[in-house]
Amino acid sequence: MTDNTPHSERPAANESTKEWHRISPIAVMFYALRFIRGFVGNLAYLLPALLVGYNQIQKNPQAAIPLSIGLAVLILVNAILSYWFFQYRLTANHIEIRSGIFSKKYVNLPFNRIQNVEVSHPWYYRPFGFATLKLDSAGSVQQEANIAALQSQFAEQLRREILNQKATGASAAAIVEVDADDIDIAGQPQQGVPQETLLNSRALKDLVLHGIANNRVWIVLGALAPFIDNITEGLPEQLQAQGIDSIQIFYADSTPVWQLGLGVIVIFLVVMALMSLLSVVGAIITFFGYTLSKVDGKYIRRSGLFTRHEITMPRSRLQMITCQQDWLDRIFNRINIKFEQINSGGSNNGQQGQPSITEGTNKIIVPSVTPSERQDLLNDAYPDNQLSRIHFHRISKRYLIRFYGLLFLLATPLSALFVSNGNYGLLTLVLGFSGFASLLIYMRYLRWGVNFDGHFTYIRKGCFGVDYHVFEAYKLQQIRIKQSIWQKKHGLASVQFILASGAFTVPYIAEGFAKKLADSVLYQVEHKPRSWM
Amino acid sequence: MTTDYSNTQLHDAQLPTIDAIDFEYISPTHIKCTRILGAMWSLFFPLLLVILVSLPKGLLPEALSPVLTVIFSILSGVFFLYFIYLWFAEPIKAYALREQDLSYRSGLLFRKVITQPIARIQHVELKRGPLDRRFELAKLQVFSAGGAMHTFEIPGLELKKAQAIRQFILSHKGGSNDG
């Protein structure tokens, strides 16, 4: 395995920044797997072609061998070319990347524009000590850079370099030049590497709890997605072949209702148990060996069973801390903490960001911590926060009237109809549903609250679970006060806080309080220029 | 980060308040234009309806004509309501520029006041459609890191005013967004 670090390729040390470098050839593996993954991911679109191909192969099986060889060669050639055409260059405080086989791409990314550096160690790299480096910039997706294979140590140094650069600011270009040479001497530990402090780590037990309380099924299902069609397709036919007619089971007049009900409940429980099991597996895949540490103002999260991900986030980028507790979390007395930063997704309003296997780089999640750990983490990030003491201003009861009125309007005619029909089964369904919906809305009303202590804004919301959102007021991007005619009559208003990580609405609070909130938060933003990034 | 942070108690009366903002209405020309456009739209579908009814029988397939009648009637109604809403909602739209922020008020049934601190603005755009160009108007768009969903937008500004606001935003101190 040849070394990819620049110093092995050219003699003079101070020219290091002028030359283009290739990454390590092991990247071929990365590109091949990426190609296969892309291929499987687009299976749905390729299905017609595959079906035709399958029929052809069935007709003449001897074609299968050259065909698969052809495919393998295609993947290999693509991977090798991808590797060959990927070149990068480090200049004073930029990284430049050239890539692309047919359509060439050139990215010039100044270090001080880089939002996030993610180092990950895919399982197939781990024996060889390689890592991939992902650089996110504040801008669009096109502006992000993936460096597929670097020696772990070099990747680590580069990451430190980029983040230090950010800290010292662009003015220190001369110093950076020296540092850039330091990078070249891979293997030699840099002097004066600051000590990391471990803030939190998660044991397997925590992850199991997390998996049960938080649905992470989709991680496993997501990986299976291309095959689900095939699995379910054959099912009814197979059942029928075994003499089980699923439709008959459900609609047979002979089966008593209680038997049917019991059957449904059993099926439901089995499905739920399976789901939680999968969810636990998903949580372990994502969070295995979880550590959260801090080194000069940066949070570093490391986790992952197969691919180890390392996400770094400067403290100054932190926009909001969310403490999330679903109803099962409440039973276990555990809390999920999210350190949220700029949401580059755009369309998503950040309240329920769909996480991926890596949990995205725009937030750092600490799964299922205990209340005391929550307090430690919160106090570390936001000293002087008063989340545990603050009194929340609840929203007005009029919030309920709208929903209850609507529910009443819907449920009454339906119930009347079913009573007159004598259809008591459906009547119970309607009443049960209305009761549940009322409870849901009432819980939501109870939870919703907001307050401001002069520096931090606190929002509480939820239903059976509770979410607390805490943010520093000066991080606000925009504020909106909304008021319907009806609200105006009763002196109520809704206020919406827009942050770089998402928007949060608190409805039906007193108009005066809403305006006071807006005024005080705006004052925090405006009275002194302070960077929110 | 928080070392230079001061937290002196401010009494409500001392805070500059949104309530005291003196809003300025958008250009009357813009209001007129939108109303005329709205009227044209609300006349468009009734016109189609008339054409449909007066068409000789057998020109359109038998089944199509009642479907079209229903669709056009619904659209006529929708656009008529929209026109009425426009008529009353347009003159409410107003904006205000303070030293540190930009506010925009709108909405007839749901009154909305958006305030955008200038220090949080990422970039500014002036948009001018054909009508805007004809009448020397412009729409001011202001982007923050709050995302595309929360673009701050003031329509129907006189071009000179819009340019002045843009200039004010661009030359505003305290827009230090680079960490």
UniProtKB/TrEMBL annotation, chain A:
Keyword terms: Membrane, Transmembrane, Transmembrane helix
Pfam family, one: bPH_2
Entries under InterPro entries matching the protein: UCP026631, YdbS-like_PH
Domain YdbS-like PH: 83-162, 302-342, 445-519
Transmembrane segments: 39-57, 63-86, 207-228, 260-292, 399-418, 424-442, 490-510
Name used for this protein in its record: YdbS-like PH domain-containing protein
Source organism: Thalassotalea litorea
Organism phylogeny: Bacteria, Pseudomonadati, Pseudomonadota, Gammaproteobacteria, Alteromonadales
